[in-house]
Amino acid sequence: MTSSFEFSTYPARISDAERDKALDVLRDGVAMGRLSHDTFVRRVELALAARRSDELAALTADLPTEGRLSRLVFGTVAAVSGFGVRLRRAWQAEKLPKLLLPHPAAGHPLRIGRDPANGLRLSHETVSRVHAELRHQGGMWVLRDLGSTNGTTVNGRRVVGAAVVRDGDQVGFGRISYRLATR
């Protein structure tokens, strides 16, 4: 029988925060090219199995840790570069003409292309005769490319097959672009 004054000789369990910090250092090390993929995988396995703080420290001892200043600088650069992309997209969106989405109850798709029989006729040399189709199905708007020569895009990405679109998205047919809008 042990008394209440005796303490366990087992070391304290590593906290999740300590383990996460070590994994972050390993992740940064492989991203900077200081660790090979195999070394990274092995060290992650060891970090997950570690029971003491000194075991974690040994796994990251040869890797530099990012200082507070460098984290601040890199975070600021990432935020600024992301802001530039968002600003450019917003600037373009305001200059684009609106393409009003048809009423969902219409039940038939809106065909887009150069052919006069289409619901939306675009007479531009980069638009195919039957270019794309906009359909309301399952509560969503779906834009489908119909095998056009110069492609259909949604927010700058080429549509392969079909893509879900919504109000505010930028859609392109060849070199003609619109911003989708509801009534």
TrEMBL record:
Residues 110-159 form the FHA domain. The keyword 4Fe-4S does not apply. Keywords: Phosphoprotein. It comes from the Bacteria. PROSITE patterns: FHA_DOMAIN. Pfam families: DUF1707, FHA. Transmembrane segments: none annotated. This is DUF1707 and FHA domain-containing protein. It comes from Streptomyces virens.
